[in-house]
Write a structure and sequence with these properties.
5-stranded antiparallel sheet, globular, 2 domains, 9-stranded antiparallel sheet, Neuraminidase
Length: 488
């Protein structure tokens, strides 16, 4: 048996190998990462109602230490645990504590934000820094001026999860004295909701932020609009009204990281959720996690590559709880690797290592190990619907504004080129669609398909074409042996 690159043990891989490597399962949901001054990477996670714990690696993830209990927490707690290393080399951890036993959110049931920090390397007693209802935490940063900022979504008491703006507004707490005292931003950011949405109309939630090279602060927000929303600030206190960003998103949170060379790295689900089935909600839109990178102050972006696919995506999903892969967190190691933690639930959580130059590759070849082929079937109930392998195929490659796709195989298919992930069996127009016979070479430019025939884009890609989808034509199946994408 020949092992694929993803199956090889981390210890056997060359340090300079740029491709993503799954290092090990992540210990818990919604973990976060910090690169320490000595070069070690520390992963923080919440053992709910017990303690914030951590594990370390000193060799870019090849091996990890045993679990360490950092400090005890009040009970009960939520999953979220966000860590930060400040400019004084002290650690901060932000986490959520549940208060109240009622069912009315932010009236008789609360999820408060708590904070713990080290002093001379020793943990101090954690304390509450925000009272209210915060569903999750996704980021904490210290600006170059020394201000610590923690963005979050606040549930508005008595507001329904419904149009026009859902039940949440995004704001932030900030500290100018290394976390001793905290103040609340006056900004309240919203995003629109729509009727009959396949999901919960939370509104604007789970923001992440990064300080851009020009010192502006950039926030990306999870919404139910099929886009991430964005906001900007000069100080972390006053924020511009949230507007659509140029990124598709499936009602899932993003993660941002500024690298040492001032490039900006984005991790998120570049996916759209499936439609409702017979009026019932269907869980989806988190089967693939993506990475993109910008080297010009977040103006233009490259990559849009699948860094992690839910390994169980083609199987029957769990009937309850979150699933698939989402809630990423990123750090850069001293050797220039990126370490990423992501995933939700057993068999899906993962710690991954890669080099940034993998994101910006201009070609990619597949032999079927990174194809998605699932189709949903049967009734939907409680945001669950069964899955099985189906006849359609979808495949990701580096985003290309002008590219060439060579498909080896046989049979006829309907081919769709697009710029985001959707369930393989779902038929939608994408950016351009045509009928093909394999083997074939397909080419496109910024206007649309060039070959095998000229067809204009019906929807212009946001950052270039990064997906091909193939559906059978009629009852006869097609067979693919290899796909190769490259820049023209």
């Amino acid at each position: 048996m020949i092992l694929t690159r993803r199956q090889l043990p981390a210890l056997l891989l060359k340090p300079q190998d740029p491709a993503p490597v799954i290092l090990r399962p992540a210990p818990e949901n919604e973990a976060s990462l910090v690169t320490l001054p000595n070069g070690a990477v520390r992963l923080f996670y919440m053992k709910r109602g017990e303690a914030v714990c951590s594990i370390d690696t000193t060799n870019d993830g090849a091996t990890w230490t045993e679990e360490r209990r950092e400090f005890a927490v009040p009970s009960p707690t939520a999953h979220a645990c966000v860590a930060l290393l400040d400019s004084r080399r002290e650690l901060h951890v932000f986490f959520l504590v549940i208060r109240g036993t009622g069912t009315k959110l932010n009236i008789d049931r609360f999820i408060d934000i708590w904070h713990a920090t080290t002093s001379n390397g020793q943990w101090q007693s954690p304390h509450r820094i925000y009272e209210g209802y915060c569903g999750s935490l996704r980021a904490a940063i210290e600006t170059r001026r020394g201000r610590i900022i923690v963005p979050f979504a606040a549930w508005i008491a008595g507001r329904a999860a419904a149009p026009p703006f859902g039940s949440n507004e995004v704001t932030a707490v900030y500290s100018d004295d290394r976390g001793a005292t905290w103040q609340l931003s006056p900004s309240r950011l919203t995003s629109p909701c729509r009727e009959d949405y396949n999901g919960s109309n939370y509104g604007a939630v789970e923001p992440t932020i990064v300080e851009l090279p020009d010192t502006r602060l950039w926030m990306l927000i999870r919404t139910q609009t099929d886009r991430l929303y964005q906001s900007f600030s000069n100080d972390g206190i006053e924020w511009s009204p949230a507007t659509p960003a140029n990124f598709w998103s499936s009602n899932s949170p993003a993660a941002l990281l500024r690298l040492r060379n001032n490039s900006i790295l984005l991790a998120w689900n570049n996916c759209l959720p499936p439609p409702k089935h017979e009026g019932q909600g269907v869980y989806g839109g988190r089967d693939a996690l993506h990475l993109a990178i910008s080297s010009d102050n977040a103006k233009t972006w490259r990559g849009f590559r699948e860094v992690y696919l839910d390994p169980t995506r083609n199987e029957t999903p769990p009937q309850r709880g979150d699933r698939a892969t989402a809630y990423p967190f990123l750090t850069e190691t001293n050797s220039g690797h990126i370490v990423l933690v992501t995933g939700q639930g057993e068999r899906r959580r993962a710690i991954i290592r890669l080099r940034p130059d993998w994101i910006t590759a201009r070609q990619h070849e597949s032999h079927s190990d990174d194809w998605s082929t699932f189709e949903s079937f049967g009734p939907a109930k409680g945001y669950w619907r069964d899955r099985r392998p189906g006849p359609a195929t979808t495949w990701n490659f580096p985003a290309l504004r002008a590219g060439r796709l060579h498909i080896e195989g046989n049979g006829e298919a309907q081919l769709t080129l697009t710029d985001h992930f959707r369930d393989p069996a779902e038929r939608f127009p994408g950016c351009v669609t045509c009928n093909i016979s394999m083997p074939i070479t397909v080419e496109w430019d910024e206007r649309g398909l060039r070959a095998p025939q000229r067809i204009a884009f019906t929807q212009a890609p946001l950052h270039g074409i990064s997906y091909v989808r193939l559906h059978p034509r009629g009852d006869d199946p097609f067979h693919i042996t290899k796909i190769r994408a490259s820049a023209r």
